[in-house]
Design goal:
By secondary structure, this protein is of the alpha+beta class. It contains 12 helices and 36 strands. The strands form 7 sheets. Strands 1-3-4-6-5-7-8-11-12-13-14 form an 11-stranded mixed beta sheet, with helices on both faces. The longest helix has 15 residues. The relative contact order is 0.12.
Amino acid sequence: MSKLFLSLLLLFVTGFLNADNTNQTQDQNLVQVQITEHFWIPLSDGTRLAARMWIPSNANEQQQVPAILEYIPYGKRHGTRGRDEPMHYWFASQGYAAIRVDMRGSGDSDGFLDDEYLKLEQDDALEVIDWIAKQSWCTGSVGMMGKSWGAFNSLQVAARRPPALKAIISVCTSDDRYNDDIHYMGGCLLNDNLWWGSFMLAYQARPSDPELVGDTWKQQWLDRIEQMPFWPALWMKNQHRNDYWKQGSICEDWNAIQCPVLVTGGWVDAYTNSVPRILENLKVPRLGIIGPWAHVYPHSGTPGPAIGFLQESCRWWDYWLKGIDNGIMTAPLLRAYMEEWTAPTGWYDPSPGRWVGETTWPSTQITSKSLYFTDAILTADSSQAGDTELAICSCQWTGSAVGEWMATGIPGELPTDQQADDQLSLTFDSAPLDERVEILGNPELILNISSDKPIANLCARLCDVAQDGSSRRISYQVLNLTHHESHSDPKDLEPGKFYTIKLKLKMCGYAFDPGHRIRIALSTTYWPLIWPSPSAATLTLRTKGSVLNLPIRPYNDNDRAIQFETPVSGPATPITQLSKGKVDRSFSVDPLTGCSTYITDCEGGVFGEGIERFDDIDITIAHNLKRELKISAEDPLSAHYVLTQSYNVSRPNWDIKIHTTVEMSSNETCFFLQGKLEAFENGNKCATKIFKEDFPRNKL
């Protein structure tokens, strides 16, 4: 009898597997856990959601346990299997039922997925939570957790107040879908909107596993492809902050959430800004943690140091789901990692620094220090502030050292030395610092600016400049200046008119060393992060009244008491790496044409994992993606972006391949999107879907 057949017959599996994670130590003191590989949760409309569960072996009607739900669209069977096993097994070993559910229209579940964060998604979650709470083995108390999509919907579902939901954990999250997600930033179009849309085409074109759903798998697969939306186009139809984005943005009604919230983020993740806003605005019991990490769970945190996040989470669950007074709520409201200088080479691990704590947020001990603009200088002496006008009109490919909008833990993702971009920008430097300067919060710029065009973008970067001239980006922000008063109702700029622009940079925690300089760099472009404005605008900065406000945090000896346990995990999913992953990055400029080309080429595994076989279910995964972005030095309308992708899921005698291509360009008035999806079974083409949509540029 095959291992695969056994895995299907035996719904409950017990035992231990060897951990394989360099950031974690397998916990050797785990109780026995039963794993239900696959079961259905029925919904009131007849839809079935596929689920996987880890539960203590002794849980029953007499020994009930609370439950922890993770509810995402990435496929429990093989999409997130490697991540799920060590985390959820560990929670089960601590006396919880951990349940991983595929959302409607994803993974092995029934139905169709039409968009992100729909009300229907939340409605289904309410039914799932109610179903879990009513199981004979459950105490009736449910927690919900997730990272990214699962973090968003944990907050969204909490705002719906299901009675059984007692607490949530939200990792790498957003409270504002328009201002802090992968589509728009400061009213500018993020190029990752196309990247993520391409990802979703491939992810959602994956079929259910025939070994779980039976002979209906193929028709369900073809139906799903037929119903597939053109994901990037969904989001480009809504270029301003309208009702589409307000749905699912918890900042619309902070009082809607009535259960306790633990929220975490990372400095090189894209979602850090939500952590302080959630701590400031929610009125429920809450805690926040910001580490040096990318878009990953903190127990796998890279750049390190990773923390014992599973233990910290368990303390949270024990307090709120089991009523154990373990002192977790005596922790500082915000624990944040104060980073220190390291050379800006595109990657570092671990990140040098230390943990600090704030008992309130906004913190009563953080004060604002103002640096005033003069000719190329930042000065703390307001009497020396300048009164000149300086022009900014950047080369269209300014931003080549940007790194990724959202780092995922792969070497090369982080911003590299900013000197090249600084030379293409208007820069202002402080004098060499006499002493260490620590900041924690959102640096803010107040700038007096005019534009010669009605639509213009502004990028501001805060950098640490070492004695050798190397420049490390610490924080940044971009702004479509037509949005400077409102993201809902932007207005054309009046050419030549000066506006007071208040620009809050990304949340950061950083210590500038003595002898280093603080730099502000301003540019009108930030390619390949954002799509350029329709014409090459020249901005004029009036130094009089322009100021940088830094959130200064005094050194505190009490910070030494803030520590976390060493990361642990449950047993890892047995995986064989069939080939190593490879990620190549390049930036080049044609000296004859002035055209730049930025390429990221991922082979074997988009997140560096390589081609992997999940040995216990005999499924092999290979995922390749190449993105190519081109733009000429002086022509914003030359911007062109192409993404090609292949996704392969297979086992002996069953081989599925998904090929996608998406492409974007624009003129002064329109965006042009096109795409193609092809699906193959055992080498035979089964489906083709062509996409083509044009969108008017609405002050973008």
